[in-house]
Write a structure and sequence with these properties.
Length: 286
Amino acid sequence: MIDFLRGAPVAGSLDVVWHAGWPSPKHDPAPEIQVHAYSEHTLILRQNKSVHYEAPFLFLLFGNDRALLLDTGASDDAAHFPLGETVDGLVEDWLARHPRAGYSLLVAHTHGHGDHIAADGQFADRPLTTVVGGGLDEVTEYFGLRDWPSRTGELDLGGRVLDLIPGPGHQESALVFHDRHTGLLLTGDSLYPGRLYVEDRAAYSDTVDRLLDFCATRPVRHVLGCHIEMTTTPDEDYPRGTTHQPDEPPLQLTAAHLRTLRRALDETADRHGTHPYGEFILVYRD
C-alpha cells in the first residue's frame, strides 16, 4: 500500500514546456495529448490546440484503490483525440509499477461545459469504470454533497483523499478539487491564466470566498486551472479560437491570485464587460 499521508503535501515538478499548438494545425508534429508527470502518482494531460483551440488540461490521480480522471477534454472523436487509449496506457504503466487487482477508474469533472466532458463516451464501456455526469443532480448525488453549495465533501481514492469544494458561478455544477497528497487546488474554469467567465455573480463571489476560507487553513502548493489563454504580457490574452500560443505563461497560479480575484470582484461589482487583472481577465456574461 502506498502511504499518501507521509510528507504531504509532497512536492512535484512543473518544469514543463506545454505544447501550445502549431502555426499550421494540420502539420503539427506533436501528439494529440501531452502528458506530464507532476509526480509518481499525479499526471497532467493537455489536449493539443491543433486538435481543439480550447486545449483543456486534464488530471489523472492514482490512489490505492482507484484512479481519478478529472475532465475528458473538448473532442469526442477517438480518432482525433484518443483519450481513452491514452488513459488506458497510463493506468497500465502505473499498475505495472504498483500491481494490484480490481483497480478501477472514476471519471469526474471540474464542471459540465462541453470542452470538459466531450470524451466521456470513450469510457462508457470501459470495465471497472464509473463516469459521473456533468449535471448538478449527478454531481451532488454521486459525491453526497448535500445542501449544495454550502457544504464541502471528500473523495477517497484509497488512502489518497481529496476535498470537494462547491464552485458554482462559472457553471452551476462546478466543483473544485483539493488533493491533500500534493496540495494541488484544481479549480477548473473558476480560476486560471485566462478569461474568467462569470455566469452568476452572486454564486461566483460566494465560491471565491469559499475558496479563500479553505486556503486559509489548508496547504496549497499550486492552483491549477484547466486552460491557458493569456500571453506573458500582463492583461493581454490570445483571442478566442487561437490555435497557436507561442508566448504562454505557466499554468500554475497561487492562492494569492484568489485574493486578487476577490479584489477584482469588489472593484467591478457595479460594472459589466471585461476587466483585465494581470494574470487573468474577469468577464461578466450578464
